[in-house]
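Q: How would the structure tokens look for this protein?
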Amino acid sequence: MPQITLSAKRLQRNFGARRAVKDVDIELSRGEVLGLLGQNGAGKSTIMQMLAGTLAPTAGSIAIGGFNLSADPTAAKAQLGYLPENPPLYLDMSVDDYLTFAAKLRRTAHPRQAVDRAKTRCGLADIGKRPIGQLSKGYRQRVGIAQAIVHNPQVLILDEPGSGLDPLQIREIRKLIRELGNECSVIFSTHNLAEVESLCDKLLILRAGEIVYSGRGDELHAAGSLEETFIRLTAAEAQDSASTPHPARQTA
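A: Here is the predicted structure in token form.
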């Protein structure tokens, strides 16, 4: 059977009286790419922050690489790579220096080899000496992804990796994500449905913090175009009252 790399069960997150994420389940195996979809405010970034360990869930459990994120956070996070929407880059550092810094933070046994491998995978082999601040937006995204994979994680989380890129850069980042998806599990959020159709094995669509679809993308397409189905599933206004029945969850 495929190796389970990530398992999240009944995740919830409250902000005061507002429940932003409600009973979300996610399971991924090595080699799977999951697209996380939803309108602004649907809970995508909150879920990714909980999976990455930067935001504690109000309820539920997360296991990464077989390690419980709450009980053994150091071991769990060692199996994880994370690229937030705004990459944590030091613009005055060179690519090599920055990735070496990231590798040492991750306590990789051989930082130099780890950096060389990440640069090769991300198409950065020829620009290691250049300051990050002199790179294009597309190459900065590549550096951000390189720092997320420098320790060879089992799970890679990417928050809007194509944000602000031109069409050529988006195509290059898509190709990179697909290649990375052959070696680990990938979760990424996006508003670009073309990215989802070209990259994802699985889809998870959210509305007001709840799952309204969880399953394979090709099975969702049977109900119509992805754009039409996405609008149909997410357009209805969510009910604020906790006493109101939640929208039905559709699964493939």
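The longest helix spans residues 167-180.

Residues 237-252 have pLDDT under 50 and may be disordered.

Upvote if useful.
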